[in-house]
Write a structure and sequence with these properties.
Layout (H helix, E strand, L loop, with lengths): L1 E6 L17 E2 L2 E2 H12 L2 E6 L4 H7 L6 E5 L4 H11 L4 E6 L7 H14 L1 E7 L6 E3 L2 E4 L7 E10 H14 L6 H8 L5 E3 L17 E11 L6 E4 L2 E4 L12 H13 L5 H4 L12 H14 L2 E11 L9 H12 L6 E6 L5 H4 L3 E12 L5 H5 L3
Parallel strand pairs: 1-4, 1-6, 4-5, 7-11, 15-16
Antiparallel strand pairs: 2-3, 6-10, 7-10, 8-9, 12-17, 13-14, 15-17
Bound molecules: magnesium ion (MG).
The site of magnesium ion has 4 residues, from strand 12 and helix 7.
C-alpha cells in the first residue's frame, strides 16, 4: 500500500498572499489541485497536511478525489509531515510539496520504483547555477557544484523508517527543511532519482502569474476628402488624402494600443481616450501610446514584441517602415528588432481595396516584470 502526503500547511510568506499560497489559483485552479490530480490515481491514499484552520477549505477541494483526506498539520513542515506519517497506513510513503504543482506521473512512478529498489527515492536535479556561501553580502566560499544537488519533491521512503527517523530527530530537537535531511541524519543516505526542471516550486508572486500575456487590436479609419498626409506609427507619410479622425488618425498605433490594453485585461482605447473628450482632439497618438505603456507598467507588464499589419491600397508605405519601427521602439522601450510591421494592399477588394480607408491589426506579447521582493532587497541583491 502506498500513501501520499501532500504538504499544504505552509504560509507562503514569500509569495506575499494574505492566505495559503497552495489554495491560491494558478491558471484558474487552486495550486493544491494539480498535485492531487497526479497523486490520487497512483497512491492508495492521499493525506493532505494542512493548517487546522484550513481543514474545511482544503476538504472542499478534495471532493473529486475519494482517496484523499485532510490531516491537521503542525507549526512547522516537519511537525505536519510527522502528524501525517502517524495517520498514514501505507508501507511506502511519498511526501510532496503542494507548492510543486507541475509534478508528473513519471516522477511519482520513478519515486515509487526507487523506494522499492533502494529503500528510498529523493527527487533531485544537478545544479546549473554556481552555489556560493554568503556572509553579510559577500561571497566567502564557492564550493564545487558537482558535490551538490537541488532537492525537490516527491521524496519516497518506507513509512516505518521515515517515522523512526522523525521520532529520533524530535527527541534531539532537530529541525530539517525536508525529509531527505531527516532520513540522511537518522536512517541512511537517501537515494536520489533524477527530477524534472519543470517541477518547479511556486514561491514568489511572479511564479503564480503566467509569465506572458498576448493581446490583439484592430482599427480602421476612412479617408477624408482632403488633406496631404496620413500618420502611421508616428510617421507622417505624404498622401493624396488624410484619414478622418478625432485624433491624428494613426490607425496602426490605435490598433497597437488596443492590443496592449487587451493583453493586460483592460478596457479599450475608446474607454480611456473617448472621442467625445476635447482633450484628445487632434491628439498625437504616440503620446497616448506612451500613456498606455505607463498604464501597463503600473500593472507590472511590458511589451516583449509587437507585430503590426497595415492594409492600405495607398499611399505606398515601404519607404517608411524602418522609421515607423524606430518610433515605436522608442516609446515601447524595446529594441527595434522586437517590432515587425507588414504593409500590404487588399487586392482592390472591399472598402480598403476601393481606397475608402485603411485597416490595421496589431498583436503584442507582454511579460510580467516584478519588483524585487523585500527579502531580496534585505539580502543586498
Ligand atoms: Mg482609431
Amino acid at each position: 500500500m502506498i500513501s501520499a502526503i501532500v504538504c499544504a500547511a505552509g504560509r507562503g510568506t514569500r509569495a506575499g498572499f494574505a492566505g495559503n499560497k497552495v489554495l491560491h489559483g494558478y491558471n484558474g485552479l487552486p495550486v493544491l489541485c494539480y498535485s492531487l490530480a497526479v497523486f490520487s490515481p497512483l497512491a492508495d491514499e492521499v493525506l493532505v497536511a494542512c493548517a487546522p484552520g484550513e481543514l474545511q477549505a482544503v476538504g472542499a477541494l478534495l471532493t473529486p478525489y475519494p482517496n484523499a483526506r485532510p490531516v491537521p498539520g503542525g507549526s512547522t513542515r516537519g511537525e505536519s509531515v510527522y502528524a501525517a506519517l502517524r495517520a498514514a497506513k501505507g508501507e511506502i510513503v511519498l511526501v510532496h510539496d503542494a507548492a510543486r504543482p507541475f509534478v508528473t506521473d513519471k516522477l511519482v512512478r520513478d519515486c515509487i520504483e526507487s523506494v522499492k529498489r533502494f529503500g528510498s527515492g529523493v527527487c533531485a536535479l544537478p545544479l546549473s547555477d554556481t552555489v556560493a556561501q554568503v556572509l553579510d553580502g559577500n561571497i566567502v566560499d564557492v564550493p564545487p557544484r558537482e558535490g551538490f544537488a537541488a532537492v525537490q519533491t516527491p521524496q519516497g521512503f518506507y513509512r516505518c523508517r521515515l517515522l523512526g527517523a522523525y521520532e529520533r530527530a524530535r527527541a534531539d530537537g532537530r529541525v530539517f527543511s525536508d525529509e531527505s535531511g531527516v532520513y540522511a541524519a537518522y536512517a541512511e543516505p537517501p537515494r536520489l532519482f533524477l527530477g524534472e526542471r519543470t517541477n518547479r516550486k511556486l514561491t514568489y508572486p511572479e511564479d503564480f502569474s503566467p509569465a506572458e500575456r498576448v493581446g490583439f487590436g484592430t482599427d480602421t479609419h476612412a479617408f477624408a476628402q482632403d488633406g496631404d498626409a496620413v500618420v502611421l506609427c508616428g510617421v507622417k507619410i505624404p498622401s493624396a488624402r488624410a484619414l478622418k479622425a478625432h485624433s491624428d488618425g494613426d490607425a496602426a498605433v490605435h490598433a497597437l494600443m488596443d492590443a496592449l490594453l487587451s493583453a493586460a485585461g483592460m478596457r479599450d482605447i475608446g474607454f480611456y481616450f473617448p472621442d467625445s473628450d476635447a482633450r484628445f482632439a487632434g491628439a498625437d497618438s504616440m503620446k497616448l501610446l506612451a500613456e498606455v505603456v505607463g498604464m501597463l507598467a503600473e500593472k507590472g507588464l511590458r511589451a516583449q514584441n509587437v507585430s503590426i499589419a497595415i492594409v492600405a491600397e495607398r499611399p505606398r508605405l515601404a519607404p517608411y517602415i524602418e522609421e515607423m519601427k524606430q518610433k515605436l521602439a522608442d516609446v515601447l522601450h524595446i529594441p527595434v528588432t522586437q517590432i515587425g510591421i507588414a504593409a500590404g494592399t487588399n487586392e482592390k477588394l472591399g472598402y480598403v481595396g476601393e481606397g475608402k480607408g485603411i485597416t490595421c491589426f496589431a498583436t503584442v506579447l507582454c511579460s510580467h516584470v516584478f519588483p524585487r521582493t523585500d527579502a531580496e532587497k534585505r539580502r543586498g541583491f
